[in-house]
From TrEMBL:
Domain of life, source organism: Bacteria
Family the entry assigns: Belongs to the sigma-70 factor family. ECF subfamily.
GO cellular component: DNA-directed RNA polymerase complex
InterPro entries cross-referenced by the UniProt entry: RNA_pol_sigma-70-like (IPR039425), RNA_pol_sigma-70_dom (IPR014284), RNA_pol_sigma-E_actinobac (IPR014325), RNA_pol_sigma70_r2 (IPR007627), RNA_pol_sigma70_r4 (IPR007630), RNA_pol_sigma_r2 (IPR013325), RNA_pol_sigma_r3/r4-like (IPR013324), Tscrpt_reg_LuxR_C (IPR000792)
SUPFAM superfamilies, per database record: Sigma2 domain of RNA polymerase sigma factors, Sigma3 and sigma4 domains of RNA polymerase sigma factors
GO terms of molecular function: DNA binding; sigma factor activity
Alphabetized Pfam families for the sequence: Sigma70_r2, Sigma70_r4
UniProt entry keywords in alphabetical sequence: DNA-binding, DNA-directed RNA polymerase, Sigma factor, Transcription, Transcription regulation
Species per Swiss-Prot/TrEMBL record: Planotetraspora mira
UniProt name for this protein: DNA-directed RNA polymerase sigma-70 factor
GO BP field: DNA-templated transcription initiation
Span of domain HTH luxR-type: 98-160
Length: 160
């Protein structure tokens, strides 16, 4: 391994962890996701460093790995009360209910929304990261937003 890989990990590691946390909703899973992605990146670093965007490459690994884990697990995490998560990003504080609803979306829809609204990436870049067309990105975002709207309306009706 060379120093450029170490510099990349030191410089972008916390941002990758935040990205992983938003994808998974769990600090331990986020740490595992980052570790797995960096291990894979380390194996191909000499090729990846020659490309324009090593961070985009590792984010693609993370998104695809997260979807693979979700498909394998296909289980719900039922908890009466969420434990103290230790790390929290200030951008996540505002609306816990919305983040909980985001966690109920299928992994690809959640990844599209996270990349679009949290990471502020254009549809073309999201498509490249997820390995889908831009039309798929738009349709997944539309479906996800519709599900969130329905959930929010139902929650508001329950409050009344």
């Amino acid at each position: 391994m060379d120093d450029t890989f170490d510099d990349f990990v030191r410089g972008r590691g916390s941002a990758l962890f935040r990205y992983g946390f938003v994808l998974t909703g769990d600090a331990d899973d986020a740490a595992d996701l980052v570790q797995e992605a960096l291990l894979r990146l380390g194996d191909t670093w000499h090729r990846v460093i020659r490309k324009d965007d090593p961070e985009g490459y590792v984010r693609t690994i993370m998104a695809r790995q997260h979807i693979s884990w979700w498909r394998r697990r296909r289980r719900e995490r039922l908890m009466a009360d969420a434990p103290d998560r230790g790390y929290t990003d200030a951008r996540l504080d505002g609306d816990d209910a919305l983040w909980a609803e985001l966690g109920t979306l299928p992994p690809r829809q959640r990844a599209v929304l996270v990349l679009r609204y949290y990471e502020d990436l254009p549809d073309a870049e999201i498509a490249a990261i997820l390995g889908v067309s831009t039309g798929t990105v738009r349709s997944q975002a539309s479906r996800a937003l519709d599900k969130l709207r329905v959930g929010r309306r139902a929650a508001l009706m329950e409050e009344v």
